[in-house]
Automatic annotation (TrEMBL):
<dbReference type="GO" id="GO:0016020">
    <property type="term" value="C:membrane"/>
</dbReference>
<dbReference type="InterPro" id="IPR003439">
    <property type="entry name" value="ABC_transporter-like_ATP-bd"/>
</dbReference>
<keyword id="KW-0547">Nucleotide-binding</keyword>
<keyword id="KW-0813">Transport</keyword>
<feature type="compositionally biased region" description="Basic and acidic residues">
    <location>
        <begin position="250"/>
        <end position="266"/>
    </location>
</feature>
<dbReference type="GO" id="GO:0015416">
    <property type="term" value="F:ABC-type phosphonate transporter activity"/>
</dbReference>
<dbReference type="GO" id="GO:0005524">
    <property type="term" value="F:ATP binding"/>
</dbReference>
<keyword id="KW-0067">ATP-binding</keyword>
<keyword id="KW-0472">Membrane</keyword>
<keyword id="KW-1003">Cell membrane</keyword>
<dbReference type="InterPro" id="IPR050086">
    <property type="entry name" value="MetN_ABC_transporter-like"/>
</dbReference>
<feature type="region of interest" description="Disordered">
    <location>
        <begin position="250"/>
        <end position="273"/>
    </location>
</feature>
<dbReference type="InterPro" id="IPR012693">
    <property type="entry name" value="ABC_transpr_PhnC"/>
</dbReference>
<dbReference type="InterPro" id="IPR027417">
    <property type="entry name" value="P-loop_NTPase"/>
</dbReference>
<dbReference type="InterPro" id="IPR003593">
    <property type="entry name" value="AAA+_ATPase"/>
</dbReference>
<dbReference type="InterPro" id="IPR017871">
    <property type="entry name" value="ABC_transporter-like_CS"/>
</dbReference>
<dbReference type="Pfam" id="PF00005">
    <property type="entry name" value="ABC_tran"/>
</dbReference>
């Protein structure tokens, strides 16, 4: 379980990125984090694993307060947090398998990692994960030869190879087409459910968040202004988060995208019949 208590981030300029953010994410729950650009979504995720140093507040992962750990202890505890990035953060010249195994770097010695010599159990785990994300046949392919959706699947497998207790996901679908975006979101929801992983997903696509997230947290100017189920995210709540907009049109666009994909699938099925 993850618990944030009064998390605040103030930059040296005096600008507040986060103000008194408090929330609890129980085991197995996937939370969608939405809000306009500059609302503090990415800062919140990066404060949790202290890629950005919080100014105050507590970050409890189980019984451990990550906000108060010295550097050596923080490195050890970071192994418990899997991070999935918008731009994949893969090593392009390495194979898919090598990228997945890089998730084990926090568990092996320097020379083992330098020589890329991993225990047999790590290699077996990597193969199982590649099978789970649908890339077992791509294990020996270089990362730079993959599509965007395949790269994101490698990123998911790499994060899971850490055997984390928490997933932090930063805009996993921002560079993907609508169909692939839904496939990636479905995969994330499934693997979190299978492993009982709590997760926070920074996502800019509101209809996608409403379709897949179990809970949605809305940020505006660094403050939580909404915390509820997708069904509770009304047009009034969306206006509170983002400001005035034609939310009916936005929902219609999302429905049109899904219908267009369904029609394409029907035509392909007819051609192959």
């Amino acid at each position: 379980m993850l618990e944030l208590r009064g998390l605040t981030k103030v930059y040296r300029t005096g600008d507040k990125a986060l103000t008194d953010v408090s929330l609890t994410v129980p085991k197995g729950q996937v939370v969608g984090l939405i809000g306009p650009s500059g609302a503090g979504k990415s800062t919140l995720i990066r404060c949790i694993n202290r890629l950005v140093e919080p100014s105050s507040g507590r970050i409890l992962l189980g019984e451990v307060d990550l906000a108060r750990l010295p550097p050596r202890a923080l490195r050890r505890e970071r192994r418990r947090i899997g991070m999935i990035f918008q731009e994949y953060a893969l090593v392009e010249r390495l194979t898919v398998m090598e990228n997945v195994l890089s998730g084990r770097l926090g568990y092996v010695g320097f020379w083992q990692s330098f020589m890329r010599r991993f225990p047999g159990s790590d290699i077996e785990r990597a193969y199982r994960l590649l099978d789970r994300v649908g890339l077992i046949d791509q294990a020996d392919k270089r990362a730079d030869a993959l599509s965007g959706g395949q790269r994101q699947r490698v990123g998911i497998a790499r994060a899971l190879s850490q055997e984390p207790e928490l997933l932090l996901v930063d805009e996993p679908t921002a560079s993907l087409d609508p169909k692939t975006s839904r496939q990636i979101m479905r995969l994330l929801i499934e693997v979190c459910g299978e492993r009982g992983l709590p997760a926070i997903v920074n996502i800019h696509d509101v209809p996608l968040a409403q379709q897949f997230m179990q809970r949605i947290v809305g940020l505006r100017a660094g403050r939580v202004v909404f915390d509820g189920s997708p069904e509770e995210l009304t047009e009034a709540e969306l206006t509170t988060i983002y400001g005035e907009e034609d939310w009916t049109a936005m929902r219609k666009d999302g429905e049109d995208d899904r219908e267009a994909e369904a029609e394409t699938a029907r035509r392909l099925a007819a051609l192959s019949a």
